[in-house]
């Protein structure tokens, strides 16, 4: 019941121009790797947010014309009327659950690569496109600008036809023409669209006015605007031109959706920005300037913070991308006073990585994200048990915890055995490293729920042997025993162990267990993994006063973190912490005098004196218990399954997903599960579009 728990203000309706949001929970546009390539999947995912109580559910950015082609990325597309039915799938799903549907129209200017359409790239000025590719934008002439305005009008008309309630003009993230024209960094024009701020705002103003005219009161018009580029005096600043833009356009949109640019600043991870609501200092002025409703973001998961922001008049609507991904039912849980059940976003940006890879969205906390349509998974519902039987889950890392939780949700009696003194596995271990504290939420949320269950028994300090497992006579066993980092140097670059002797060698597991390398000389971290953990540990050890050298075969540190929008911050922060970085080098050998590295291209050796070595190369699956059970006791079990990192080392998100999948598939015919992998959106052979 709204009001019952002190959060009633969050459930007040908000008028947005001609439409009304039923409450203050607003899912702002966010990418998801589905878009025009997988429209049914996107519709189901957006519909789930509406079912979970969000008042407004938005698309991701929607290309309005073939000159704004973001392929191969799977954004939304509204080039012509053939794209309307796919988008209508989403508006229907969102409306079914009483929410408003918003669409973020975008022309991406020189951010678009036009690889698919091979159209010329447009921009305010001549200049290279955003990505490294030998292609440049041409400065738009007056005819180009007139055309752009017509394309926006046409897209708004189609958006209305597709059933959207709110239509966006998008001037954010440095990703659209509206934003490019606003920023002197991109706009060096000398005509009426360049120079003074009034001139640079002209295009956004025209787009707003013409979209409003086109929609004629049938839909609200929103402006997504980045008030600050977080570059200090080198970019737009909230208290200077950012504020001036809001003052100039104050009453023109029906809604202000405000944030910071670029995307890596807007979607900062907890590793670099642990503070929920970190964007508030930038956007809090907006409501003082306009009478229109304002939505802002900043990884909001705390209803207390949300309530205070609304009460103090900072925001009218609580915007969320990642919190709505981690928990599509966040509003419902607040409304029903189920605060402890909220799956809080951990700020890891694995969701973002999927968009950057062009594959369907996934989430560390919410394994059902992206699976709503293709697997029919619901974040809050799971099929009840088929038979009266029970299960043993061995290991309480992300895979074991999720598997145990979902089995208990299905109604099975579950025993969870953990060798360590605390539950949580790698979620707990990794959260002890500097910057990763929020990752503990993966364990906390699941543990809290498991502790409420009458059908779950949980034991720490219980390293299970095969004989002990067999003696328990539990017919269904899930081995979620995890993996360990290798100490011998084998991994991606060398399948054989490396010749190392005469100096102490550590692994990430040692550091996570609280050990530190000796302080009497530099520690060389060899990062052949190239994901995130070596960079995190380099930071951790530098903070502990160690002299750190990080060598990697990669050209940059933690190359994987490009996908999570963190790489520049990783490298900058390591340089600032005094870590010596040696890229493009492989470890050849090490002895008491130090390490010998070899150039990744020529093999030319380079001596690097160090007192200890920390190997971050690859992991070994901890599958011995499972192998023994399978070899000697298989006849005792109906189910014996290896899951998570013990089956296939990967991300925490992969382990959670594996645990969830195992619980969903439990008591399902394996042949049927294999035949029915997931539903696919097959390409139509109709040849629609064009003439
Ligand atoms: P995952 O990511 O797959 O969940 P983790 O490494 O996070 O894997 O967790 C594996 C957990 O399994 C660890 O907490 C470890 O202590 C526990 N474990 C490993 N072997 C046993 C065992 N024989 N008995 C009980 N717990 C075990
Ligand atoms: Fe949050 Fe990580 Fe899930 Fe993204 S993947 S929504 S950052 S928990």
From TrEMBL:
Official protein name in the record: NAD(P)-binding protein
Residue span(s) of domain NADH:flavin oxidoreductase/NADH oxidase N-terminal: 10-339
Cofactor: FMN; [4Fe-4S] cluster
UniProt entry keywords in alphabetical sequence: Flavoprotein, FMN, Iron, Iron-sulfur, Metal-binding, Oxidoreductase, Plasmid
Short name of any one Pfam family annotated for the protein: NAD_binding_8
Phylogenetic classification of the source organism: Bacteria, Pseudomonadati, Pseudomonadota, Alphaproteobacteria, Rhodobacterales
PANTHER family: 2,4-DIENOYL-COA REDUCTASE, 2,4-DIENOYL-COA REDUCTASE [(2E)-ENOYL-COA-PRODUCING]
Domain TMADH/DMDH/HD second alpha/beta span(s) in chain numbering: 507-586
Keyword presence, Iron-sulfur: yes
Keyword Transferase attributed: no
Organism listed in the record: Leisingera caerulea (Phaeobacter caeruleus)
Family under the similarity heading: In the N-terminal section; belongs to the NADH:flavin oxidoreductase/NADH oxidase family.
